[in-house]
Amino acid sequence: MAQDEAVIGCTGELLIGTRGSAGPGEILVRVRGGSETFLAWSQEPLPIGTTVLVVESRGCREVDVIEWGDPLDTLRGDAADVG
User: Fold this and answer.
1) Fewest C-beta in 10 Å: which of 27, 31, 33, 62?
2) Where are the alpha helices (DSSP H) in the chain?
3) What is the pLDDT of residues 13-42, one digit of tens each?
4) Distance, CA of 57 to CA of 2 (rounded, Å)
């Protein structure tokens, strides 16, 4: 199957937690001006509600993901502590 390159680099939220090598979860991804669901694979189990980054497309609506934390959230937290 052909890769879905549009989804690589997108973030989303896990609707069903991943189980690492034991099986996929499900992710809701904001892509192409809307939201779509994909089977999501990760190296380590991730719980429901985790924000993830799509790092690879396996084709056929399956993607590889990693846990994602917005780097700007860290900066916002530091700015709130100043003053």
Assistant:
1) 33
2) 71-81
3) 999 999 999 999 999 999 999 999 999 999
4) 9
